[in-house]
Amino acid sequence: MGKYLILETIAREMRIGVLVLDSDGSALYANPSFLEFFPVRGGVEGKHVSDLMTNAHLLNAVSGFLQKRRGSPESMEIGEGPVVYSARLVPIKEKADFSLILFLQDITEEKRVETIKRDFVANVSHELRTPLASIKGYSETLLDGGMDDGETLREFLRVIDRHATRMSRLIDDLLTLSRLESHQMTIVSAPVDIGELVLSMIPAFEKQARDKSITVSTSIPQGLPKALGDHDRLEQVLVNLLDNAIKYTPSGGSVAVIAASDGQSVRVEVKDTGIGIPAADIPRIFERFYRVDKARSRELGGTGLGLAIVKHIIQGHNGRLNVESAPGAGSSFSFSLKACK
């Protein structure tokens, strides 16, 4: 077997894009991975690199190699549309012949994960800094003599307790989300009476709703089949959805929990008459720490992780999650689970 056939076979099986250019910048060869990245009708042979790729930084580097007809291998990151590539340019000079090989690896997902990690650290730091600063400030005031006034002491301790509770909730949510994302929190599926679960949870929200004069109602049909799921995890889902619905519904509004089944699945909807969500924000509301109204959410005690937890739990059940909302028209969050036969 010839060495060129062996090399071509290796290049063909690589998941890294390979493009070979001649001394004029015209393509001599492109492997299948490159053609997946940059589809070209009729093949690439004979086409100039500038007809195949548009990144100015890369094209300038290629031009520099071709003009000098020499140089050391060079690496760079380039963007072509929404995709990010790690590019390596390797010049080859053999006697009078000169060619240039481009190796391209799609690193879009790696960059996305890097961004998520960076944003996560920044968000956690920010979320913890505010309550910690308040706790420190109020405690220092008390230590500097503020304890002499009984009313001031009680008020400051209430503030400290509120911020400590907020941090505790944030840490609990972070641990829950971490366990869900790393699959350390096992989803134990068993028949769950959704109607019974909903009715058992409503009393826990009566005071929160009563304080805002919000009516909470349920609609559960007779004969609703049980759903296949994890009782405790589904309880977390409903707690987060009900808590959000009441928080973001103005005084005098209403929240309804509606259950239904088509025989194949059980659907649960939490519907409110709240402030609603702009269409541009809906695709992002299940991201960690994403808030439509950051100031209002923090004021109401939200951690920014509740909907991310909901998403991961429903995904863990192989269920469907849906949201419909518009500013001023309220929101509807629903999820569907497989019904028990």
* Number of domains as seen in the coordinates: 3
At the first level of CATH, what is the class of the largest domain? Alpha Beta
The chain-level mean pLDDT equals 85
- Relative strand content: 15-25%
Low-pLDDT ranges: none
Q: Which strand order does the major sheet show?
A: 2-1-5-4-3
| Distance between the amino and carboxyl termini | 60 Å
CATH topology of the largest domain: Heat Shock Protein 90
Taken from the alpha-carbon principal axes, the silhouette is elongated
For the sheet with most strands, the description reads: 5 strands, antiparallel
Structural class: alpha+beta
Number of strands: 12
Description:
- It is a single chain.
- The chain is an alpha+beta fold and 341 residues long.
- It has three domains: 3-106, PAS domain (Beta-Lactamase), CATH 3.30.450; 108-185, Signal transduction histidine kinase, dimerisation/phosphotransfer (DHp) domain (Helix Hairpins, Orthogonal Bundle); 186-341, 2-Layer Sandwich (Heat Shock Protein 90), CATH 3.30.565.10.
- It has eleven helices and twelve strands.
- It has helices at residues 3-13, 32-37, 49-52, 56-68, 108-143, 150-181, 194-201, 206-210, 231-247, 294-299, 306-316; strands spanning 17-21, 27-30, 74-80, 83-94, 97-106, 190-192, 215-219, 227-229, 254-261, 265-272, 320-325, 331-338.
- A hairpin with a 2-residue loop joins strand 4 and strand 5.
- The chain starts with a helix and ends with a strand.
- The model has no long low-confidence stretch (mean pLDDT 85).
